[in-house]
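Researcher: Let's do a round of design. I'm pasting the structure tokens now; please hold your answer until I've finished.
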């Protein structure tokens, strides 16, 4: 029996409680999100072995936990129900996501008072962004589509990441999370031989004006640290996501210390316990 929340290529957009929409319905999804009066967040999920999407994110309460940040989330789903690091699956959805971005751009142009959304890409969901950037489809004046893009636990090859990241020019601010303790990305690196950006930052990196690398090395978190249950009760990490996902221009100096990884400048979030 087909589960009602299994992946459906014809309806890749998802909104709580169980609304499934096509790309052609994106204008209605965007209107509905802004009508809530909450900051709007676009969410690109990671791999969903054995469950599919949006089923996995619903079952594991990802959307509910994102709602705790006070946002209205539009999820873009892709065929993630595979058993390994199959880059072709997110790449196959890149064209549809590009269509969605074109509709979002049109909405923002016709609603000049609307606050731009933020974009959260988790794990293999980052491949969709890197694919579009490689094809020069995200080159624009900064801030034309998003306030913040957060590249969280990025399961993309760190080698030559500078080439596509420096062409990701549709947000006011890009944040690339680096977590050397991410065992999921470590396993992926062993199994498929690339070092993953979200764990193994290497030089050269992009200029600070193009992106900020944010190190989580001192926090003891693993892979799904963009929601509270995965944050090891780290208050500064919670504060980072509470601001970044709602479009705030963060004062990182209040949360993190300057550091370097392989000669690349990073901001290392300070440990501060206290969030349940």
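Researcher: That's everything. Go ahead.
Model: Designed sequence:
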């Amino acid at each position: 029996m087909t589960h009602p929340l299994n992946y459906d290529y014809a309806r890749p957009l998802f909104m709580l409680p169980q609304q499934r929409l096509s790309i052609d319905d994106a204008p209605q999804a965007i209107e509905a999100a802004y009508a809530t009066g909450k900051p709007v967040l676009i969410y690109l999920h990671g791999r969903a072995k054995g469950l599919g999407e949006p089923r996995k994110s619903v079952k594991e309460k990802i959307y509910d936990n994102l709602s705790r940040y006070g946002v209205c989330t539009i999820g873009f789903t892709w065929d993630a129900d595979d058993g390994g690091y199959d880059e072709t699956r997110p790449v196959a959805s890149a064209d549809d996501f590009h269509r969605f971005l074109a509709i979002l751009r049109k909405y923002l142009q016709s609603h000049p008072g609307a606050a731009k959304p933020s974009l959260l890409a988790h794990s293999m969901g980052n491949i969709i962004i890197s694919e579009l950037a490689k094809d020069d489809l995200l080159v624009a004046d900064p801030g034309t589509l998003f306030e913040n893009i957060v590249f969280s636990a990025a399961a993309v090859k760190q080698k030559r990441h500078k080439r596509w990241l420096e062409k990701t020019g549709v947000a006011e601010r890009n944040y690339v999370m680096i977590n050397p303790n991410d065992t999921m990305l470590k396993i992926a690196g062993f199994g498929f031989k690339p070092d993953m950006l979200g764990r193994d930052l290497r030089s050269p990196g992009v200029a600070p004006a193009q992106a900020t690398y944010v190190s989580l090395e001192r926090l003891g978190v693993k892979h799904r640290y963009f929601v509270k249950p995965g944050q090891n009760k780290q208050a500064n990490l919670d504060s980072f996501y509470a601001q970044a996902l709602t479009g705030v221009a963060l004062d990182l100096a209040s949360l993190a210390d300057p550091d370097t990884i392989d000669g690349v400048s990073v901001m290392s979030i300070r440990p501060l316990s206290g969030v349940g």
